Amino acid sequence: MSEERGTGRVRVMLADDEHLIRGALAALLGLEDDLQVVAEAASGPEALAMARAHRPDVAVLDLQMPGADGVMVATSLRSELPGCRTMIVTGHGRPGHLKRALEAGVRGFVPKTVSAQRLAEIIRAVHAGSRYVDPELAADAISAGDSPLTAREAEVLELAEDGASVAEIAKRVSLTPGTVRNYLSAAALKLGAENRHAAARIARSQGWL
Fold it and tell me: How far apart are CA 190 and CA 74, in angstroms?
């Protein structure tokens, strides 16, 4: 591996599907004497592969990426690379996102509007064991309230979002088709949606899936 450990620098991985933003951020963080960007990724699966290969100290993950979102990646890294601390960068603080992130062990939750200098400070703090949640993102998430969906309703709705039929969902979650329809109807009713697909879109936009 070309990057040497023992230099005292914090090894950082950046994962964002927007190449221009990721590249600019890598260049700016690279100007910091105590930070070293050792890997970059453009998708969830690539972020996991790069983290396994380079074993960063801190992984800065975009919330929304192809293949797997930042929280999913953080969840996997928590079990695979417990020494790697994770941060989520997002453009919005939708209800559910912050809760999911904290449950996944994420140590930082910051807006995309943060400056590179401030991000560097937060990376250092997270690496040192602190937790940072942007106050405005936290306020947005708290004011929006918790998900009205039960865990089972969210589970079948997420499968419906992927285009699975009622029969397919029933088989995958070991329920009868009638029970699945009841869960989907209940979810749609709670969200004021005309069908399960619209309900899934609403739930996803709010961070409840």
Answer: 30
